[in-house]
Amino acid sequence: VSTLKGKHFISIDQLSNDELKGLLAASHQYKEIYSDKSKPLPRPLNGHSVSMIFQKRSTRTRVSTETGMSLLGGHALFLGPSDIQLGVNETMRDTASVLSRFNDIVLARVYAHADIIELAKYSSVPVINALSDLHHPLQTLADLMALQQHFGTDLTGKTVAWVGDGNNVLHDLMLGSVKMGMNVHIATPKGYEANADILAKTIELAKENNCQVVTSNVAEEAVKGADVVVTDTWVSMGQEEEYAKRVKEFEGYQVNTELMGKANPGAVFLHCLPRHPEEVTDEVIYSDASLVFPEAENRMWTVMAVMAAQMGKV
Ligand code: CP
Ligand code: NVA
After folding, report:
1. Rounded-to-integer distance, Cα 94 and Cα 171, Å
2. Which of 132, 165, 204, 249 is most solvent-facing, going by the fewest CB within 10 Å?
3. What does the pLDDT look like over 258-290, one tens digit per residue?
């Protein structure tokens, strides 16, 4: 994945199929190398640093990046909403220009996707999108890695069903799935569909990769024929005041044992976490079909691969 050297990582859309598969291969390799702490660990990012801007909460993204960077021999700085001048006293542009002079990578979790674009425009070092209202590419890498661990490297012909909100996590997952040759079934309630431009792009890519994208407003239709069932919270960060309305409008979208029973035999379940009981039952999330904890662990192996690729080390 030497082609990713010096590049921003904004959405899965920007990756060629080979780059996507290459990042996944590097992630599996990192898991193997860095899980064994009895030997001296390679430090390819010795002397490097990543600043991590978080305008929203995070458990996985923050801890995986900070720990992953330290395993690679570098240093990570956590910059929460009240730690830096950004947003109160300073613009994204000036923040980008300054952080680029200290750090080798700038990772950011923001509300508006336009803020990531602005950051990338003015940063002279590679930027990583750690979640915006439109994209969550790091999550997709972890999800695809979990599917490869379960089904094997070649995911061609498998079917992924998304049941829930047409949100940031879905956007990259659908792009990534068709790049891996998987079919995508999407069920969202009326009014909560995926972004139309990103869906159109996914359909175009699906044609190139000989797979299908099917959308509906019925959860049962989406899971029919699916090997993977995926959901996410119905109420993303920043939408808290819509909680009551959303829970009402997402009725019938809970992933429970009955819904999983309508997918293919052996179907697995994914969720990026954190989760709430309304979108998935305990019975499903703690079942043998659930890959959610390996999926969470993979957030570290995959962000390590992204950072190392941006620094030209893989
Ligand atoms: N899945 C995910 O991005 O989790 P965090 O919000 O805890 O980082
Ligand atoms: N869709 C969720 C994902 C959290 C990791 C959100 O944007 O809050």
Report:
1. 29
2. 204
3. 999 999 999 999 999 999 999 999 999 999 999
- Determine the structural domain holding residue 159 and report its residue range: 139-295
Tokens at residue 213, please? 């994208």
- The reply to whether 211 belongs to the active site is no
> 25-45: b or e for each residue (b if 16 or more CB lie within 10 Å)?
bbbbebbeebeeeeeeeeebb
Q: Indicate the top mutation candidate among 237, 273, 276 to test ligand 2's pocket, ranked by most ligand atoms within 8 A of CB.
A: 237
Ligand 2 atom, smallest distance to 61 CA: 5
CA distance 269 to 229: 5
What gap in Å lies between CA 177 and CA 143, rounded to an integer? 10
Report the candidate in 228, 279, 226, 288 with the shortest Cα–Cα distance to residue 256: 279
Question: Residue 36: CA atoms inside 13 Å, Cβ hemisphere, count?
Answer: 8
Q: Report the number of distinct structural domains present in the chain.
A: 2
63/207 same-domain check: no
Each residue's pLDDT tens digit, 8-21: 999 999 999 999 99
Please determine, for the modelled complex, whether the ipTM score is greater than 0.90: yes
* 143 and 288 inside one domain: yes
